Amino acid sequence: MEESQIREISCEQSVLSKPDGSSDFSQGDSSVMVGVYGPADVKQNKEILDRATIEVIFKPKIGLPGVREKAMEKMISNTCQAIILTTMHPRSSITIVVQVVQDAGSLLSCCINAVCLALMDAGISMKCMVAAVSCAISEDGEVILDPTLKVAQVASSVMHFAFESKEKDVILSSTQGMCSPDQYLSCLASCQEASDKIFTFYRTSAERRFSKT
Amino acid sequence: MAASTECTTVLPGDILTDRVNRSGSKKYKLGPGLTVQSEDVVACKCGVLKSKENSTFWIDNHQKRYIPAKGENVIGIVTLRAGDIFRVDIGSNLPASLSYLSFEGATKRNRPNVQIGDLVYAKLLVANRDMDPELVCIDSSGQSNGLGVLSTEGFMFRCSLHLCRKLLSPECSLLRVLGKKIPLEVTIGMNGRIWLRCRSVSETIGAMNTILAAEYTSDENIPSMVEKIMSAMAGY
Amino acid sequence: MISCSWYPTKLLLLNDDIKIRVSSSCNKYSFCHFSKFKKENIRPDGRELGEFRATLLNVGTINTAHGSALVKLGNTTILCGVKGEFAAPPVNEPKKGYLVPNVELPPLCSSQFKVGPPSEQAQVVSQLIDDIVRSSNLINLESLNIAEGVVLSGGESVYFFCVGTGVAPGFACCWGATKLPERGPKALSKLSWVLHCDMICLDYDGNIVDASLIALLAALKNVLLPAVRIDEDTGRAVTSQEGSIPLKLSCQPVATSFVVFDDTILLADPTKEEEGLATGAVTVVVNEEGDICSVHKPGKEGALYLPRKFMTASGDVSRDLRKLDSWLRKHWRVVKDDVPTGAYDLD
Lengths: 213, 236, 347
Hints:
The structure holds three protein chains of three kinds.
Chain A lengths: L8 E5 L7 E7 L2 E11 L12 E7 L7 H17 L9 E10 L4 H16 L7 E8 L5 E3 L3 H6 L2 E8 L5 E8 L3 H30 L3
Parallel strand pairs in A: 4-5
Antiparallel strand pairs in A: 1-2, 2-3, 3-5, 6-7, 6-8, 8-9
Chain B lengths: L7 E3 L6 H6 L6 E2 L3 E4 L2 E4 L3 E6 L3 E5 L12 E10 L2 E5 L6 E4 L19 E8 L7 E3 L11 E2 L5 E4 L2 H8 L5 H8 L3 E5 L3 E5 L3 H13 L8 H12 L3
Parallel strand pairs in B: 2-6, 9-11
Antiparallel strand pairs in B: 1-5, 3-4, 5-6, 7-8, 7-10, 8-9, 10-11, 10-12, 13-15, 14-15
Chain C lengths: L8 H4 L14 H13 L15 E5 L7 E7 L2 E12 L10 E7 L15 H17 L8 E7 L7 E3 L9 H4 L2 E3 L8 E16 L4 H14 L2 E2 L2 E4 L4 E4 L5 E2 L7 E8 L3 E4 L3 H6 L2 E7 L5 E7 L6 H7 L2 H23 L5 E4 L2
């Protein structure tokens, strides 16, 4: 049996001129563009006295954002909350705009990875980095990493995890479909292992970028 | 400045305690991008770790957003006049304030001539995360020392913070090389804003493009880069 | 000194060094205050760390709905009403009906919610409940299908009339005529039940996911849908006089929410105050077989405890799950018992 792997990752940072940080991230055929503004001025009613306000705007490829998009926004913003040192910039806002370019499966993890790269580009102070990996359990119980839309549709369950870079602890977990606790744990373990690939990708792309100066 | 030749790319969350301790000095200063988390020195930004005299460490990156730091000279745009102070946009999350008394020779009677929309070159007197930044256009002896309102004849453009730091470092030869080709007056604010005045519009554009092109050009390539742009400009 | 009288005696021992007033609204003070309790393995309301609040369930509260339930989880109160309506099935799944769970957080339940469009939290919880219902295959959606492909007489508008079946008084008045959109001649009309499940929070004191799910499950168990027959002459759907059918649920998912306090302690069934002080939260939904329907951990710092623990020794895991299980059984017991109406104390 061939070991399933994360699809090919590619990324370009600082693609947009106006935002303070931006990234164009693709994982297989899924592609997401992210712009980050911050620390910028904050609306009076959203101001928090001792830390920065994090706002995520999720734009689907077509149509208006609905409840599902709202839930995605919340998950992304909570994930960012966990890694950004918000207390470094009190009374400011960090606005993250996520635009889906193409959804070909594992969209949530693709978004989180893109957001992490854009935050790094914007120079926002972070405790650590975050990498998200999705996986699916097929009908016959096989764990498939980074499933495409087709695989996810027939899978018995799909899971998304986000890990932080220090201890590889889980920041986010979201599941669809049923599975046994053992299956959940084995998915968690294999996603955790696969997150290494994404962290290595972050490092190599940063090294390539800064070798120029 | 004796910047260390060793260039290491660091990412947020990297523990740099060993790297800092290796320098041997017991006391060290941590600059932007470095924090202490439970006795470890940890990077919180993505960039290149730099050090000075093995006792000061910071991370250099291509950030665009300015975070005010005390003592830095910045170029601000006057946005509002409110009683005794001017509100000045310096590109940070909060607008800075500038008292009308903090100009050279200003008294209660003799107010400085500052209009809304003017550019001011000023020093940050107060800059911390919990307070509005405060600017002054005089030094401690009351002299302007180059600070003050910038002439409306110049041209201001924005660039990355990294480029400003690079241009201001003594090793960077760009302004020396460029100055020999085009006579120019330049003011560099640490907040990613550069004010420029040349003899003609075409020279201003040429100088601006040269400065912006320097961001990813190494020091030894700068003379050839300037030469290239100058020869391209010669036709106009 | 703490002035609340209901604190257990165990706590009074450590009161000497607590000099913070309970009513202090400042986060930092409450944090210190809470820390002292946590050290003693007890919470300010007298519960142990893994203990649920007293739960009260009242089934069949609303007469006009097809199914309803009122749940009180401590102070948190959720009222769930399920109402069936006729609707065209989804285009891509013509044989299925559907379920629309909706959680409402009106200003009534807490001052943190304002009048106007649904708050972010309401939308997020609604989505989570919807995900759980889908993941667990709670209801066989094909059983909600009424008619698949009825040829209608062309041109005229078609009405589907429902006649009150006498499930409950006041039932008929809510059941007027449902007008389906006009279709072209010989349009193929399909008809399914759509179950609107409205969960309205009456009192917000934390842990609304668990409470909403209990309310939803109890209300769905309570649903009696009238039997429907399509009159072939008129093309109208007529609800028959007898034979209301209870809804069949394929499983019983139960949610358990925890918050992480101080990065080390897990608190089950958090109150609003505990949610505010916590560094993270996780909701685990398990069915009666012990299969996981959802592990929802929506980020936030510090919420790393449970999955890490999940990952350590497997013995640890099973113990955790067993612990979970015992809490869940309590809920199941009530939901499982086919009870018509009335209030039940889960403890």
